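Hi support team,

I've been running sequence recovery on a batch of backbones for a student project. Most finish fine, but this one hangs at about 90% for roughly twenty minutes before it completes. I'm not sure whether the input is malformed or the queue is just slow. I've pasted the structure tokens below so you can try to reproduce it. Let me know if you need the job ID as well.

Thanks,
M.K.
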């Protein structure tokens, strides 16, 4: 049984992470730290935490923990994450991992130095339809083409934000692109545009990978609403995904459509399962118990972060 601590009780933690970790039989939720005492009381009562704190360092000094879910905005995560890693704790953090790639590297260095894992919540890797698409294409590979699209309508911006929309949101599908391609980028052509404001909100990138696959990223916040889609193509097979709910499979000129819940064989209402959040947390715990590096550990994610920098134009 792993003893788990939590730092942060914001909306993402309470909506996705607390309830799913609570479903894991091999984890005991023993300590929580949150600056907002109202939120602290709420989660402590809901999940019956025996230990509560408003100072994460005191939590680390007081309670014997195996893993820590350190979930908060990228502008605040660095120091708590480093404190956990340097205390020898395996951690789970949300994307993006820090406020910039330098902070990502600091956390990675600390994870390596202390021989612990630092898993990042790139949940699209764990979605049922992502796993199914990769399985089908692996059977009839190699990967030829990958596309990822993540659009929303978020207009405005004065150009003075702490991070860009590519860093704090579109990074999701940059990571998914690289993960599904199965290689590392060797050529990147990118366009960064501003529509309806002074902040970059439209990114388009063409990526060539070292295994011969080609990838295309579309990330547009000047569009008309939220769309999250992807394509993965092999030889004689093409998978068209509406994440996380549906995959349309074209194979040898035959078409078949499945819901994410059908892929995982679960109830349609168990969104946390087929969306990938529960699977992601199960994977993290399994890796800690069996001493295996998680799929989305910083040791791998750092390469996605380098690709984000290339698309942003900060790493040529």
């Amino acid at each position: 049984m792993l003893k788990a601590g939590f730092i942060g009780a914001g909306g993402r933690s309470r909506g996705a992470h607390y309830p799913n970790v609570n479903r894991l039989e091999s984890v005991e939720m023993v300590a929580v730290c949150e600056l907002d005492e109202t939120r602290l009381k709420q989660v402590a009562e809901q999940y019956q935490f025996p230990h509560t704190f408003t100072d994460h360092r005191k939590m680390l000094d007081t309670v014997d923990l195996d893993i820590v879910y350190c979930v908060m905005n990228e502008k605040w995560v660095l120091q708590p994450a480093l404190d956990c890693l340097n205390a020898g704790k395996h951690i789970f953090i949300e994307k993006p991992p820090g406020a910039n790639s330098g902070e990502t590297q600091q956390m990675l260095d600390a994870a390596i130095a202390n021989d612990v894992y630092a898993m990042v919540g790139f949940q699209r890797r764990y979605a049922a339809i992502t796993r199914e698409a990769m399985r089908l294409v692996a059977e009839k590979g190699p990967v030829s083409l990958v596309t990822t699209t993540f659009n929303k309508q978020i207009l405005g911006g004065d150009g003075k934000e702490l991070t860009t929309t590519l860093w704090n949101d579109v990074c999701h599908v940059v990571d998914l692109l690289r993960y599904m391609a199965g290689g590392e980028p060797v050529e990147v052509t990118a366009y960064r545009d501003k529509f309806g404001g002074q902040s970059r909100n439209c990114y388009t990138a063409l990526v060539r990978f070292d295994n011969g696959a080609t990838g295309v990223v579309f990330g547009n916040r000047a569009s008309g609403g939220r769309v999250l889609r992807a394509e993965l193509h092999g030889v004689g097979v093409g998978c068209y995904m509406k994440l996380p709910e549906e995959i349309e499979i074209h194979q040898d000129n035959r078409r078949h459509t499945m819901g994410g819940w059908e892929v995982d064989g679960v109830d349609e209402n168990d969104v946390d399962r087929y969306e990938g959040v529960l699977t992601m947390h199960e994977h993290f715990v399994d890796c800690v118990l069996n001493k295996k590096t998680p799929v989305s550990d910083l040791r791998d994610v750092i390469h996605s972060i380098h690709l984000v920098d290339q698309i942003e134009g900060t790493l040529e």
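--
Follow-up from support: It reproduced on our side and the slowdown came from queue contention, not your input. The chain has a mean pLDDT of 97. No action needed from you.
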